[in-house]
Design a protein that fits this description.
It is a single chain. This protein has 178 residues and is mainly alpha-helical. It has one domain: Arp2/3 complex 21 kDa subunit ARPC3 (Orthogonal Bundle), CATH 1.10.1760. It has six helices and two strands, in the order ααααααββ. The chain has a two-stranded antiparallel ribbon. β1 and β2 form a beta hairpin. The protein is globular.
Length: 178
């Protein structure tokens, strides 16, 4: 129950940040994917059921904030989250490098899948140059935003007591920080 409350709070903050960041033309109208970063956080740190819920909620919020038809982003976010979750036992979810890598790859996958779905229903078509610029800037923004989102989400989890991360240095137990 507490995980769901924290997830809702993170989703509201993520949606707010995604709305506040301007879609700049020289970035191909790419925006930092805060909502996808939250899904990736849950994919690397929680159960598959939690990932499905996070993907559905984040996708619906994304669709409500953009011109994407309702439900399309949910499908994409769930797929990206489930695939990322398959690597949970192979990576260090607390690492900034891991977060940046999964953010970048997840963003590329999500953008390509969503674009393919929208092209199929004739909802959008971009020239190759604009698509490339948007994909690259979206991936770079995700590589920066995802580690920051992971830090914030982990701090929220620690704050409410969901996660208690400790490390021992020279026999002294202390909270683990990034």
């Amino acid at each position: 129950m507490i995980t769901a409350i924290v997830m809702v709070v993170l989703m509201i903050i993520g949606a707010g940040l995604q709305v506040l960041f301007p879609a700049l033309p020289f970035l191909g109208q790419a925006k930092p994917p805060f909502l996808l970063a939250i899904v990736l956080y849950y994919a690397l740190n929680r159960t598959p059921g939690t990932v499905l819920l996070a993907g559905l909620v984040a996708g619906l919020l994304h669709d409500l904030l953009t011109e994407v038809p309702l439900g399309y982003s949910s499908i994409v976010f769930v797929l990206v989250g489930v695939v990322a979750g398959r690597f949970r036992n192979l990576v260090l979810p607390d690492s900034r490098v891991t977060a940046g890598f999964f953010g970048m790859m997840g963003s590329l996958a999500a953008q390509v899948l969503l674009y393919a779905m929208l092209v199929r229903i004739d909802a959008v078509w971009w020239p190759f140059g604009r698509l490339t610029v948007r994909l690259l800037w979206g991936a770079l923004l995700a590589a920066v935003v995802t580690p920051l989102t992971f830090i914030g989400a982990r701090r929220c989890d620690q704050w409410v007591g969901i996660v208690k991360v400790r490390e021992v240095i020279d026999g002294i137990e202390q909270p683990m920080g990034w």
